[in-house]
Write a structure and sequence with these properties.
Elements: H1 3-9, H2 11-25, H3 38-57, H4 60-67, H5 70-95, H6 102-112, H7 120-128, H8 132-148, H9 154-186, H10 190-211, H11 219-245, H12 253-264, H13 268-278, H14 285-325
Length: 333
């Protein structure tokens, strides 16, 4: 494989490295309140574009089928809102005997209680080619479910989810009905478009991370907490993969992709306001926030790096399943 062909194939990984490097050099450009205004361009415009893109690319029957996939929804929500926080609590009982700052450990516990994000899990599922419709439902439903039961204003959550998820999705579906033949004939690069939006999100996320004064720990504590967070993410991604691919599971490879991303990702957008309300007046609020501030870019970075590997597994698994379902030719005597 030639160098140019290799670069073309791995453009997304190279893009991740590039945007992180640019964010490190000048984080002020993509930080909240900066020239790019990510609080508008990312939170509203980019997220709306993601779900308009999804509405345009998904068949209506796929969305309907995903809505009725109750087993998948139960798996994701129970893992996210029950198993994840419980497992983190048990793990932190072991870490409590170590010299790690207790407020950082409390921050890790709050990470476990957060819902999935609305955008990153959907984009990564789409980039792999997984069950995008199921990812959309579980990401939005998880945020809505936990947000409506917390101290964060219900009206604010509902209106933002409605305007950035539901409305663009419906508009995309309506537009699709009129240009369906053109879409099937031209096959626009929906996956590449979502990947480009994801690079924008990665860039602004790391701008916020590098510019954030709260992440001002001693190097030992910072290295330890980053290691713990990546270990948690890798372990839980592996667990959800094992659970959803066991022999008696009815999940398809595409379902597994949605499950892996939706079950292990956590929302920064909903998480930070929740922390500010729950821990209002706490002297150590900045330390409590650090694990979530690290978890968010870490999940996007790790998920993006794993896209080619997971996609390769899914495609090969789908081919293997297709071969096993083909009727065998009768043996001639």
């Amino acid at each position: 494989m030639g160098l140019l062909e290799r670069l073309r194939k791995e453009w997304f990984i190279l893009g991740i490295v590039l945007v992180i490097a640019v964010a490190r050099l000048e984080p002020g450009v993509g930080v909240k309140g900066g020239p790019l205004k990510p609080e508008i361009t990312i939170t509203y415009i980019a997220v709306s574009a993601i779900f308009f893109n999804s509405g345009l690319s998904l068949k209506t029957e796929e969305l309907t089928s995903a809505l009725m996939h109750v087993k998948l929804h139960l798996f994701v929500q129970i893992f996210t809102l029950v198993f994840f926080p419980t497992a983190i609590w048990v793990f932190l009982q072991l870490l409590s005997i170590t010299p790690i700052n207790e407020w950082l450990l409390k921050g890790l516990q709050t990470v476990g209680c957060m819902p999935p994000p609305v955008s990153s899990a959907v984009i990564l599922t789409k980039a792999v080619g997984g069950n995008e419709a199921a990812a959309i439902f579980n990401s939005a439903f998880g945020s809505f479910l936990l947000g409506s039961s917390s101290s964060v204003p219900f009206t604010s959550i509902f209106s933002q989810l409605f305007m950035t998820v539901v409305v663009p999705l419906i508009i995309g579906q309506i537009v699709r009905r009129y240009i369906k033949d053109w879409l099937e004939r031209k096959k626009p690069p929906f996956g590449a478009i979502s990947s480009c939006v994801l690079l924008m999100i990665i860039y602004t996320t790391f701008c916020d991370t590098f510019a954030n004064p709260n992440i001002d720990l001693d190097k030992f504590s910072l290295i330890i907490i980053v290691f713990i967070i990546f270990s948690i993410q890798m372990s839980f991604m592996f667990l959800t993969f094992l659970f959803s691919t066991r022999n008696n599971s009815t999940f398809t490879p595409a379902d597994t992709v949605a499950i892996v991303f939706c079950s292990t990702h956590k929302s920064l957008t909903l998480g930070i306001p929740m922390l500010k309300i729950v821990f209002a007046g706490y002297e150590y609020l900045s330390l409590i926030s650090v694990p979530l501030l690290i978890y968010h870019p870490a999940q996007i970075l790790l998920g993006s790096l794993l896209v080619p590997t997971i996609k390769s597994w899914m495609v090969s698994r789908q081919k293997a399943l297709k071969l096993t379902r083909q009727p065998k030719a009768p043996v001639k005597v």
